[in-house]
């Protein structure tokens, strides 16, 4: 088919188009990648030089002519109301809204509870030094308490992925003067086997309050207030003595689920050696600290049976919240 035949056929089909759909079909047929006109332009390299110039000029002129014809016809159809009719009585399509991850919901709830008690929210690095993660928390290199944390050590000597957000305690005290009350939410890492209640990556909230007259009674009140606001006034919990190298005395907090007690968090009064590391005088200030896992709180609050569900990326799980 020569150029004049292509022109007459294409222009006729464009003119006959009764709607935008037919016009688009004609455009694709005569100007698309598989059209005869584009095929003719691609075959120019095989033509003699004298014929190539003549055909090339005519083909390009025709291409512009067809594009103009399509534009004119489109404007004509639009002016005649060729757009699809809109049925205003037809029900609209339901817009699917997103869902908050249960860890996000729990973090926001816990943050709001502590902010209402005049705590400030502080952030800290996930890649931490051995100094802040262990040494200043009353755990020198030969201390057996280090075995309580399964640690991801990095290639750079003395660096690790933090095993708890307690690493921010001395970091914060070095640059701030008491009194203060802070929480430190963030991700921590443990080198341990995963199962329904353990993960290598989890989220924790560290709390620290330091002042002249801070006491264990203040700690108990803070924890009690948080638990009752989070789980309701009827929640049953208990304090029992425990051991942590950076608090003295130390306690653990359990909550009752059904007929069994579940370990929830550790806490205690800040050890004088931690104050020494921060260059605070233990005779002038006292403080309490606590650490609670957001994953554990979310599992209790929302009845999640397996911690691994929260890191599965399964949208069927997230859409339940």
From TrEMBL:
Chief location: cytoplasm
Compartments reported by the entry? Cytoplasm
Q: Which GO terms describe its cellular component?
A: cytoplasm
Cofactor stoichiometry and binding?
Binds 2 magnesium ions per tetramer.
Known EC number(s)? 6.1.1.20
- Share an example GO biological-process annotation for this protein: phenylalanyl-tRNA aminoacylation
| UniProt family annotation | Belongs to the class-II aminoacyl-tRNA synthetase family. Phe-tRNA synthetase alpha subunit type 1 subfamily.
Subunit composition and interactions? Tetramer of two alpha and two beta subunits.
Fetch the NCBIfam families from UniProt: pheS
Q: What protein name is recorded for this chain?
A: Phenylalanine--tRNA ligase alpha subunit
Q: Which organism is it from?
A: Candidatus Jorgensenbacteria bacterium GWA1_54_12
């Amino acid at each position: 088919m020569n150029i004049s035949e292509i022109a007459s056929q294409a222009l006729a089909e464009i003119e006959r188009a009764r709607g935008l759909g037919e016009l688009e079909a004609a455009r694709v047929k005569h100007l698309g990648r598989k059209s005869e006109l584009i095929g003719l332009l691609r075959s120019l390299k095989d033509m003699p030089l004298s014929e190539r110039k003549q055909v090339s000029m005519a083909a390009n002129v025709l291409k512009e002519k067809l594009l103009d014809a399509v534009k004119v016809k489109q404007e004509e159809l639009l002016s005649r109301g060729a757009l699809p009719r809109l049925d205003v009585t037809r029900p609209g399509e339901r817009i699917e809204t997103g869902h908050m991850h249960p860890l996000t919901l729990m973090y926001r709830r816990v943050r709001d509870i502590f902010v209402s008690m005049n705590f400030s929210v502080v952030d800290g690095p996930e890649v931490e030094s051995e100094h802040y993660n262990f040494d200043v928390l009353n755990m020198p290199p030969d201390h057996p308490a280090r075995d309580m944390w399964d640690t991801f050590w990095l290639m750079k000597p003395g660096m690790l992925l933090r095993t708890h957000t307690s690493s921010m305690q001395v970091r914060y005290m070095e640059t701030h003067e008491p009194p203060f009350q802070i929480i430190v939410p963030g991700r921590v890492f443990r080198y341990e086997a995963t199962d329904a209640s353990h993960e290598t990556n989890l989220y924790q909230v560290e709390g620290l309050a330091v002042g002249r007259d801070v006491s264990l009674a203040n700690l108990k009140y803070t924890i009690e207030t948080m638990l009752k606001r989070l789980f309701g006034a009827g929640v049953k919990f208990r304090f029992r003595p425990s051991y942590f190298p950076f608090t003295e005395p130390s306690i653990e907090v359990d909550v009752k689920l059904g007929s069994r007690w579940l370990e929830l968090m550790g806490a205690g009064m800040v050890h004088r050696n931690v104050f020494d590391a921060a260059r605070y005088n233990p005779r002038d200030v006292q403080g309490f600290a606590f650490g609670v896992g957001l994953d554990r709180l979310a599992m209790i609050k929302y009845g999640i049976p397996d911690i691994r569900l929260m890191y599965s990326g399964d949208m069927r799980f997230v859409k339940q919240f």
